[in-house]
Amino acid sequence: MRTVVVFYDRNVIDNPRSPRVRAVAKLAKRSAREETGLFLVEGPQALREALAFHPELIVDVFATRGAFDRHPEIGRALSRAGLEAEDVTDSVLSAMADTVTPQGVVAVCRRFPVSVEQLLSGGARLVAILEEVRDPGNAGTIIRAADAAGADGVILTGRSVDAYNPKVVRSTTGSIFHLPLAQGGELSDALDAVRAAGMRVLAADISGEELPGLRDELSAPTAWLFGNEAHGLSDETLALADRAVRVPIYGHAESMNLATAASVCLYQSAFAQRG
């Protein structure tokens, strides 16, 4: 077993412009993530989930001196995993982090996407497919909702935001470590794969039939298809689905946020499938 150093390294990293600090900060850019295969994890909650579910993915942990005083359970989890946290100043952590007010902890992890075929290989019954979902907050919240609803995975097509974008990762609040994610590739290939796995495709769209009317049919294996926040799914894309479904609005709201609608759809399927 490796020698355990819970915190801190003897040498405090105090230069925000050092090559190492800059290398971490660059992970906010997609090109750097793709080149290195790494991504940023910010904050104690996300790090807790990484340690609980995928400690083998953690490459580096950086923390300010007071971070583990506030969150001693993280220090204990690091110790159990045989990992080391390095002591950094507040200015260094701010330079590394993507947030304006970081929470004292930044980690670097290896990306771990799976193929669509791998995601479906265990007999998947509920999957979310994101096509041209560009807003990181919406994408992360849908991943979190899929996790909460017990979905078997999330597929982000090549026209959607990167699943390892720092804002997506933060919006998942750790759920990114809980369920398989497949990203890149064409929507048509993803739809072929889910159908080959015995799933039908339901497209969430304002033009569809109302969701409550499908309650008795939602127990079947289902892949929910969600589109762009501003203009939804194109007519061509809708034609690829088995049917279009909409979440009814009973009040006076002009529309419903994409992530909220996706949460309703995923949970309706979860309710039906779990009986």
Record the SSE blueprint.
Layout: H1 19-25, H2 30-36, E1 38-42, H3 44-53, E2 58-63, H4 67-70, H5 72-81, E3 85-87, H6 90-96, E4 105-110, H7 116-120, E5 126-130, H8 136-148, E6 153-156, H9 166-171, E7 181-183, H10 187-196, E8 200-210, E9 222-226, H11 235-238, E10 243-246, H12 258-274
Parallel strand pairs: 2-3, 5-6, 5-9, 6-7, 8-9, 8-10
Antiparallel strand pairs: 1-4, 2-4
Question: What can you tell me about this protein's structure?
Answer:
- By secondary structure, this protein is an alpha/beta fold.
- It has two domains: 19-110, 60s Ribosomal Protein L30, Chain: A; 116-274, SPOUT methyltransferase, trefoil knot domain (Alpha/beta knot, 3-Layer(aba) Sandwich).
- 36% of the residues lie in helices and 19% in strands.
- The chain contains twelve helices and ten strands.
- It has helices spanning 19-25, 30-36, 44-53, 67-70, 72-81, 90-96, 116-120, 136-148, 166-171, 187-196, 235-238, 258-274; strands at residues 38-42, 58-63, 85-87, 105-110, 126-130, 153-156, 181-183, 200-210, 222-226, 243-246.
- The strands form two sheets. It has a six-stranded parallel sheet. Strands 1-4-2-3 form a four-stranded mixed sheet.
- Strand 5, helix 8 (136-148) and strand 6 (153-156) form a beta-alpha-beta unit.
- The longest helix is centred in the C-terminal third of the chain and has 17 residues, at 258-274.
- Mean pLDDT is 94; it is low at 1-9.
